[in-house]
Amino acid sequence: MKILAFSDLHLARARAADLVRASAEADLVIGAGDFCTMRQGLAEAMDLLRAIAAPMVVVPGNAESAPELNAAALPNMTVLHGSATKIGDLRLFGLGYGVPETPFGAWSCDLSEAQAAEMLAPCTAADILILHSPPKGVADVTSTGQSVGSTAIRDAIVRIQPSHAFCGHIHDSWGINGHIGATRVVNLGPTVNWFEITA
């Protein structure tokens, strides 16, 4: 399956136009959160992506809540947050929000490590994990050199061993990828990222 994946659009019109153009060749489009900015402009962000015809599977970032994303979602979007879906033979499980809690204040949608672990626990098998936050130690380094990823997400990847784990959230690590066991972890960013993945 030919998959187009991105994260952290943050209402960027030119980036959205690139994604819409590329999506004509995609079997599936994955969005790993932060479509808007600081809980503002989510409907506008969905309008920027409206011309995507392929099925989309998305998770909320810390810039939009799960209820907000469910309410604004396009007809071809499946929203995952502590839940799973299947596209063809591919098993996908998603968890959004900032993990662990961010320092950004009341607008940010965050989970503690314990909350994230509880929401990830039902997932026993997946081909792709769609996450907003990166796992601890991979694609999670800020501009000041801090590793700020999630231990709960890392533990889930170790346990489940999907072929791919897609994330975003840490802008300074956009485009960075690495491995946890057999799992390829990719911090996507708002660019066109192509993957060929089979179950």
Summarize the structure.
The chain is α/β, with parallel strands linked by helices and 199 residues long. Helix content is 22%, strand content 24%. It is globular, with a radius of gyration of 15 Å.
CATH H-level name... which superfamily? Answer: Metallo-dependent phosphatases
Uncertain ranges: none
Helix share, percent = 10-25%
Question: End-to-end span in angstroms?
Answer: 9 Å
Q: What is the topology, as strand order, of the major beta sheet?
A: 5-6-7-8-10-9
Query: According to CATH, what is the topology?
Result: Purple Acid Phosphatase, chain A, domain 2
Class by SSE composition = alpha/beta
Largest beta-sheet details:
6 strands, mixed
Which architecture name does CATH use?
4-Layer Sandwich
State the total count of DSSP E strands: 11
Percentage beta strand: 15-25%
The SSE string, one letter per element, is EHEHEHEEEHEHEEEE
Average pLDDT over all residues: 98
Please describe what this structure looks like:
By secondary structure, the chain is of the alpha/beta class. The protein has one domain: Purple Acid Phosphatase, chain A, domain 2 (4-Layer Sandwich). It has helices spanning 13-23, 42-48, 66-72, 113-120, 151-160, and strands at residues 2-6, 28-31, 56-58, 77-79, 83-87, 90-95, 128-131, 164-167, 177-180, 183-187, 193-196. Strands 5-6-7-8-10-9 form a six-stranded mixed beta sheet. Strands 4-3-2-1-11 form a five-stranded mixed beta sheet, covered by helices on one side. Helix 5 links the parallel strand 7 (128-131) and strand 8. Helix 4 (113-120) packs parallel to helix 5 (151-160). The model has no long low-confidence stretch (mean pLDDT 98).
